[in-house]
Design goal:
- This protein is of the alpha+beta class and 181 residues long.
- Helix content is 25%, strand content 44%.
- Strand 7 and strand 8 form a beta hairpin.
- Helix 1 (7-27) runs parallel beside helix 2.
- The longest helix has 21 residues, at 7-27.
């Protein structure tokens, strides 16, 4: 299965993220405002990032026709009054096209959250191809900052949702702390 065939899988993962994102709209009032930032390393030791509390872990697997795992995704989520933070890693057990994957990560994300890209920048992140973008959902009046990085058959994505036109300092802190290991 080529990268276009994996489109459905990526959309399925992003829909789960969207569901969690919009669920957190209702949970904002209950979130802890005195978050303790801590370095988090994912369960497979692929990346580390500062998060405002212990993240909730979500795992998703999509089987191939032969029953093996075609796509495996790990997501880590933390919600605060200020922002909703997500860091994730997807491993494809098929070849992926780097440029197509970066574009699809952006497009599928924006489609899933009902947002439109307001800015984007193609860059290298630790010498790997990456796309940084910002989006806005006018209906929900929320903003998103995102970074997508492709390393071989792995796609890493870091996202923050917030409610101010300017990216909050803690969201900047979140992104600046991100490291692939």
């Amino acid at each position: 299965m080529g990268p276009i065939g994996l489109d459905y899988v990526k959309t399925k993962w992003l829909r789960a993220l969207v569901g969690l994102t919009f669920l957190s709209f209702g949970l904002r009032a209950w979130a802890d405002t005195g978050a303790t930032w801590q370095t988090f390393t994912d369960s497979k030791g692929r990346f580390s990032i500062l998060m405002p509390g212990q993240p909730e872990s979500k795992v998703s697997e999509t089987p191939a026709k032969d029953g093996s795992v075609l796509v495996h995704t790990d997501m880590y989520l933390v919600n605060t009054n200020e922002a909703f933070y997500v860091a994730g890693a997807t491993t494809y057990h098929a070849d992926i096209n780097t440029e197509l994957e970066l574009t699809k990560d952006r497009d599928n994300f924006d489609k899933a959250v009902g947002a439109q890209v307001t800015s984007q920048q193609r860059l290298k992140f630790q010498d790997y191809p990456a796309l940084e973008f910002k989006s806005f959902n006018a209906q929900a009046n929320c903003y998103f900052s995102a970074l997508s990085v492709v390393v071989g058959n792995n796609s890493y994505m870091v996202v923050a949702r917030y409610y101010t036109a300017n990216e909050p300092a803690n969201v900047t802190r979140f992104f600046q702390s991100y490291k692939l290991l």
